[in-house]
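Tokens for chain A. Residues wanted.
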């Protein structure tokens, strides 16, 4: 009888550890959730709104250790979660804005160690040259400019510091609206 209980406890323990490892792998590499904390993304995203984040965009990362294997560029107008460059551990939700690097993609130095010259990667029906020396960066902006701390304050962010793309709710930002003309 004791052997049966010990075996049951061992099986239960292994099952719980396996489930935990699976959940953590999904959370660090595939999908995660976040919540908007302030008004910087109004009117597109509201405070306390729940977001679903695709963790494999723009960087594909190794499960559990969170190291980037391959990084692409940020898509202009889409919302991303990124690490705050000024406060490590703090996450920001911002829209990617055009910075002249659209379409560029790069592989991390480890992958390029044995490769020379440019390599062509085919993604989304477009060819993009991998630039071994180029450090891919993205510029981010909040839609509520008066309440947003973004790339206007801390500059472009290395693509490796982008934690994922917001996939729900689907929002698209075309840029700041023109200021109303002054009344004569």
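Reply:
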């Amino acid at each position: 009888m004791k052997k049966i209980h010990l075996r049951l406890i061992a099986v239960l323990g292994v099952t719980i550890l396996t489930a935990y490892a699976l959940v953590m792998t999904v959370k660090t590499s595939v999908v995660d959730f976040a919540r908007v904390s302030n008004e910087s993304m109004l009117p597109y995203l509201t405070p306390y709104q729940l977001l679903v984040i695709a963790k494999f965009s723009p960087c594909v990362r190794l499960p559990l250790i969170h190291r980037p294997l391959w990084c692409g560029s940020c898509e202009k107008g889409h919302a991303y979660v990124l690490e705050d460059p000024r406060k490590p551990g703090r996450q920001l939700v911002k829209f990617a804005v055009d910075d002249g690097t659209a379409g560029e993609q790069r592989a991390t130095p480890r992958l390029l160690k044995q490769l020379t010259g440019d390599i062509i990667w085919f993604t989304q029906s477009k060819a993009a040259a991998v630039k071994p020396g180029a450090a891919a960066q993205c510029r981010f902006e909040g839609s509520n400019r008066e309440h947003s701390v973004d790339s206007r304050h801390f500059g472009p962010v290395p693509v490796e510091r982008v934690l994922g793309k917001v996939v729900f709710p689907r929002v698209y930002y075309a840029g700041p609206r023109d200021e109303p003309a002054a009344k004569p």
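Residues 45 and 57 are 20 Å apart (CA to CA). The mean pLDDT is 77.
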